[in-house]
Amino acid sequence: MDIEARIKRRQRRNGEPRLIQDYESISPVVHIEEPADRGPVLERLLDHLDPVFDGQLPPNAYVYGPRGSGKSAVITALFANLEQLPTEQQAIIHTTTRAQPPTSPSFVYVNARETASEFAFYHAVLDSLVDESVPEHGIGTETLKSRLHELVREQRTGIVIAVDHISEPESIQAPALVDLFAGLPSNVSWLAIGRDDPSTTELTRYTAESISIDRYQRQMLVDVLMTRTSNGLAQQGLDHGLARHIADWADGNAHDALAALFIAAELAEERGQDRITQANVDAAIAEVPDPCVSLGVVLSLPTNRQAVLRELIDLEESERSSVTATTEAIASAQSVDLSAGTVKRFLYEMAESGVVDRVEATTTNGQGRPPSRVEPRFPPTAFRRLYDLQQ
């Protein structure tokens, strides 16, 4: 642990011992600067990106792997470090024939969950390349593209763009991404990051390489959990045996493992415990749906939809007996300034995208179809705390 983390831990004590010292360190939606046990993956990515250290653009690539395999964690950490290269004008290779070391391309990371539209995509790329904030209103898509082309032409060494979470619900789909890339200048190279097998996505028609990221091995996942708890929890907050238990259950999925850790810590904190117990872990595991929607997906939804979900998870059982009852209960909440019709539409849209499930009731009064209720496909305790921390 570095000095800054140690100081923060003491600042948060407020005179009382607390189990959770730093929510961010154990959050399943926050990526740490140094991903644990991902050295070989980083080396494969650096092999592909090697031309940038000589001032050249690498070819396009497709990075893929199952959910929770750490794709986002590795890419965000790598690009955060590579972004410093143009500023520092560093070059790894120096020769006697080169008068000046080459500058490196610029690096841009784009979260496709938050940039599904053409405007949002070009806005995110341009905003990452300029110091001043790019306005979100009063400017059209064509103006953004024109400004981006002008800026990239000035960037003689080019730009490398990583677009993460491709082809997820509510995200940029592969065909649309191909069109977006086609609208960029020629001196742009890209990495597309998704879950689909290379043989099933048209992205590989435009790439020179496909880079696979496998699920975490059990010991790797244990190391991830222990690294997070050493920064985020009080000393001895999580026993190593419990970390192994979570890792065994998660079966290589870091998102689900961190979600379970986060929930277990929150349950222990609510009870005033100074460490996580087996009962906390068992309750946390039971709360994570199978399959589980990534909390990053839920927290990337528009704020009004998140507000609907925040009310949904706190409803009494009787208020969730049917979609109609759920709609009325949410629409009547003071924190949701939406009509019942809008709430119902949001619930149906989120059911279609898989964020929630419409579960048909097992009993009926014998008249017509049985009612269906809405169930979240994400862990409520984790979403509740993460949502409230944002407010």
UniProtKB/TrEMBL annotation:
Keywords: ATP-binding, Cell cycle, Cell division, DNA replication, Nucleotide-binding. Signal peptide: none annotated. Residues 38-185 form the Orc1-like AAA ATPase domain. Transmembrane segments: none annotated. Residues 223-284 form the Cdc6 AAA+ ATPase-type lid domain. Pfam families: AAA_16, Cdc6_lid. One of its GO terms (molecular function) is ATP binding. The keyword Protein biosynthesis does not apply. GO terms for biological process: cell division; DNA replication. InterPro entries: AAA_16 (IPR041664), Cdc6_lid (IPR055237), ORC1/CDC6 (IPR050311), P-loop_NTPase (IPR027417). PANTHER family: CELL DIVISION CONTROL PROTEIN 6-RELATED, ORC1-TYPE DNA REPLICATION PROTEIN. This is Cell division control protein 6.
